[in-house]
């Protein structure tokens, strides 16, 4: 047991600053899409027996590889639902990984269990997003901070109390508030209590899961400044999860961008903000509001919805929304022709236009001129399915709506366009991973985009 006189930061790390502390390789976390007694039982009326068995999986995190160095802050950013928090919790083994390795100081956390894992938790801690729900309202602040020390048999009662009060002072709170309950504190003060609790067992690595997203802007800056001061003093390493790019830019040394369970770009902070190489990263940066009333119009608007992680796209997962998806090589399309074809294909898939005549469709999407060669023939066939003047209801094989276009027509046109264009692109056939030369800084720049092939 540690003695009461040990100062904060009593643990000595065997790693030097800048050496690899955490290495994640092909980390995967899938969840079953259904639960309950009949989970995995699917009705199949067209076969005998009319049932099949198998549980669909939600691919929350899929094949993520990251490296975090001692003493640095790696920012993890992405849209809500992209898997950021799941990745953080899986790294800490709050969730069991489906596959992959989590090497912390050379030891694979994915292989640990029971007492070995419990002992390791003193070196890896977490700060949760909600500063209110993550604190037990029935416990006093002192008890909350002391609880991890008690779980890991650190200090005696007097030593734990002394350390808790010292930590309260370190995070900017009055040690005399040791006996207060969490409801007596503001949101920013509660998050400082969370920070003190995480530091109580002297960890080397802390996962910060959107720790300032619930706070006012002025309080955000105070909490982040406190975190940076503590990092410098105790040599902490942070994985800082956020969706606010201004927060990421303030506190991070390197940044990883996540989309639909995949990491799509990793670079040093200045390199990523000044020289983004993935279309998704560029869209995120363009979406940052500009404090200028003369600026008008939408910024960084992406087409479509995020696909379901239960059935993610093949190849590059961003390809269904990417404004720069690559044309199939078998068609000799100009950039303009491919842009028109891509826009028409996505409009048909999402049914974003009312049915119109074939001539109107050509003018609306192709300025009157279809692409040349085989691509043009495919587009013309697709137009035939959704144009109001191409075929009769009898030729379509069913009753249409008042425009003569049925759901089957939309589906046939969509299937034809996707199979002929989207599925033949390299973006759909191969998963991208490219290491680029950085223009700012010395670390490699990783981008998962076939534009760099």
TrEMBL record:
Q: Where is this region: Disordered?
A: 295-319
Any one of the GO BP annotations: transmembrane transport
The family note in this entry says:
Belongs to the ABC transporter superfamily.
Looking up PANTHER family in the UniProt record yields: D,D-DIPEPTIDE TRANSPORT ATP-BINDING PROTEIN DDPF-RELATED (PTHR43776:SF7), TRANSPORT ATP-BINDING PROTEIN (PTHR43776)
Q: What are the protein's GO molecular function terms?
A: ATP binding; ATP hydrolysis activity
Q: Where is the ABC transporter domain?
A: 46-285
Pfam families attached to this UniProt entry:
ABC_tran, oligo_HPY
Q: What name does the UniProt record give this protein?
A: Oligopeptide/dipeptide ABC transporter ATPase
Enumerate the InterPro entries for this protein: AAA+_ATPase (IPR003593), ABC_transp_ATP-bind (IPR050319), ABC_transporter-like_ATP-bd (IPR003439), ABC_transporter-like_CS (IPR017871), Oligopep_ABC_C (IPR013563), P-loop_NTPase (IPR027417)
Q: Where is the signal peptide?
A: none
Q: Which of UniProt's keywords are assigned here?
A: ATP-binding, Nucleotide-binding, Transport
**What are the top taxonomic ranks of the organism?**
Archaea, Methanobacteriati, Methanobacteriota, Stenosarchaea group, Halobacteria
* Species whose genome carries this gene: Natronolimnohabitans innermongolicus JCM 12255
Query: This protein's superkingdom?
Result: Archaea
């Amino acid at each position: 047991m540690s003695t009461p006189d040990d100062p904060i930061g009593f643990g000595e790390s065997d790693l030097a600053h800048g050496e690899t502390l955490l290495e994640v390789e092909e980390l995967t976390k899938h969840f079953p899409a259904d639960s309950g007694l009949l989970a995995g039982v699917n009705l199949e009326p067209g076969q005998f027996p009319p049932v099949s068995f198998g549980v669909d999986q939600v691919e929350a995190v899929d094949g993520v590889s990251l490296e975090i160095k001692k003493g640095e802050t790696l920012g993890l950013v992405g849209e809500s639902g992209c898997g950021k928090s799941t990745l953080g919790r899986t790294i800490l083994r709050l969730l069991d990984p489906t596959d992959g390795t989590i090497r912390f100081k050379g030891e694979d956390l994915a292989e640990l269990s029971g007492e070995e894992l419990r002992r390791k938790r003193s070196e890896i801690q977490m700060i949760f997003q909600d500063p209110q729900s993550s604190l037990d309202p029935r416990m006093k602040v002192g008890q909350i901070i002391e609880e991890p020390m008690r779980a890991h048999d650190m200090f005696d009662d007097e030593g734990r109390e002394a350390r808790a009060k010292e930590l309260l002072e370190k995070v900017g709170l009055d040690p005399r508030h040791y006996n207060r309950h969490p409801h007596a504190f503001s949101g920013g003060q509660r998050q400082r209590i969370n920070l003190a609790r995480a530091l109580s067992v002297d960890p080397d690595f802390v996962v910060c899961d959107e720790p300032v997203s619930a706070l006012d802007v002025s309080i955000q800056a105070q909490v982040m400044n406190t975190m940076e001061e503590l990092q410098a003093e105790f040599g902490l390493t942070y994985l800082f999860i956020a969706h606010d790019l201004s927060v990421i830019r303030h506190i991070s040394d390197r940044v990883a961008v996540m989309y639909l369970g995949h990491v799509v770009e990793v670079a040093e902070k200045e390199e990523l903000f000044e020289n983004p190489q993935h279309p998704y990263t560029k869209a995120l940066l363009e979406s940052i509001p500009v404090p200028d009333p003369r600026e008008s119009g939408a910024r960084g608007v992406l087409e479509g919805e995020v696909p379901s992680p239960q059935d993610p796209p093949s190849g590059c997962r961003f390809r269904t929304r990417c404004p720069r998806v690559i044309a199939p090589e078998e068609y000799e399309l100009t950039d303009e022709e491919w842009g028109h074809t891509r826009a028409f294909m996505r409009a048909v898939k999402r049914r974003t236009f009312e049915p119109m005549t074939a001539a109107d469709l050509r003018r609306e999407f192709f300025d009157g001129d279809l692409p040349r060669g085989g691509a043009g023939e495919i587009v013309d066939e697709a137009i035939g399915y959704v144009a109001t003047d191409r075929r009769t209801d009898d030729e379509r094989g069913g009753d249409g709506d008042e425009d003569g276009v049925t759901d089957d027509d939309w589906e046939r046109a969509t299937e034809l366009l996707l199979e002929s264009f989207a599925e033949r692109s390299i973006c759909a056939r191969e998963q991208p991973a490219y290491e680029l030369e950085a223009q700012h800084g010395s670390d490699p720049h990783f981008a998962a985009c076939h534009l760099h092939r």
